[in-house]
Amino acid sequence: MSVAMQMKFPTLPKESGRKSNAVYGSLRRLIMLSELNGGSILTEQSLAHEFACSQGTIREALLRLEQDGFVERRGYQGTFVTSISDAEAEILIHQRIALESAGIARACLNIDTATREFLLQSVEDYRKVRDLGDGYLLSRIDLAFHLKLFERANLPNLMPVLARTLQLVHRFMIAQRAGETFWLDLFPEQHLSIIEALDQKDPEVCRQLMARHVASNVEAFHPIMFKRLFGSMEQPAA
User: Fold this and answer.
1) Measuring CA to CA, which residue among 207, 215, 209, 205 is closest to residue 191?
2) Which PROSITE patterns does the record match to this protein (predicted)?
C-alpha cells in the first residue's frame, strides 16, 4: 500500500514496503473479489515473471495467503486458490457471532479514547472509500474496525482466529454478489450504531447488536443462507 493511500485512509492496516507485501496484497485483492476463483493454480515461476521478482518473494507472499486460508499448497501439484463451501461458511458465521458477541460484551467496558477515535475514523474512511467504489479496501477497513474493537476484549489468543474468520466470511459473501455494488452502503450506519452502543457500556445491549449486525450482513449477501441459519428470528442468539 502506498504512503499516500495510508495517509488518506489512516485506519487501513499498515504494510511495509517489501516486495512480498505488494505481491501478497495484489493476489489477496484478486482472490477476495473473485477475480481468481477457487481451484485456480498459482505457480511461483509464472507469478515471479508477472511481478518481476524472485520466486522466493512469491513463496513468501503465498505463505501469508496460506495462513489466511486463501490458498493451499499441495506438494508437487502446486498452490491452489481455496474454495469455501456453504457448510464451511455457515460454521464460520456462527463462529464469528460467538467471538464478536463475547468480545464486544467485554470490550464495551474497556473502550478508551484512542480506540473510540479509531472506530469513528474508520467510519469516515469507509465513506471515502465507498465513494471510490473499491470493495477490496472497504473490506480491509471493515476488518480493521472489528479487530480494533475486539482488541479491547483482551482475548489475544483469539485475535488471529477472528482475523482469519472475518477474512474468509468476507470473501465468501463478496463472491455471492460478485460485480455488484449495493453492499458498499451497508456498513457506515451500522458501525455508528455499534459505537453508540459502546458508549452505553451495557454488555447485553452490545452483544445483541453485534449479533444482529452480522446476521443482517448475511441476509443482504445471501438471503437463503440467512433463512437457513436464523429462520424467522428477528435476531440470532448471541
Assistant:
1) 209
2) HTH_GNTR
Total residues found in the chain within this entry: 238
Residues contacting 25, CB < 8 A, separation 6+: 1, 15
Indicate the domain borders of the chain. Answer: 19-81, 86-229
Cell numbers placing 40: 485456480
Render each residue's pLDDT in the chain as its tens digit; 238 residues: 544 455 566 777 666 678 899 999 999 999 999 999 999 999 999 999 999 999 999 999 999 999 999 999 887 888 999 999 999 999 999 999 999 999 999 999 999 999 999 999 999 998 888 888 888 888 999 999 999 999 999 999 999 999 999 999 999 999 998 777 776 777 788 999 999 999 999 999 999 999 999 999 999 999 999 999 998 555 554 4
Write out the CATH class of domain 19-81: mainly alpha
Residue 71's DSSP bridge partners are 81
Torsion over CA: 120, 149, 1, 189 (sign)? negative
Measured between alpha carbons, how far is 158 from 155 in angstroms, rounded to an integer?
Answer: 6
Q: Does domain 86-229 have CATH number 3.40.250.10?
A: no
What Rg, from alpha-carbon coordinates, does the chain have?
Answer: 18
Domain 19-81 and domain 86-229, same fold? Reply is: no
The three cell numbers of residue 208 are: 445483541
User: Using an 8 Å Cβ cutoff, are 231 and 186 in contact?
Assistant: no
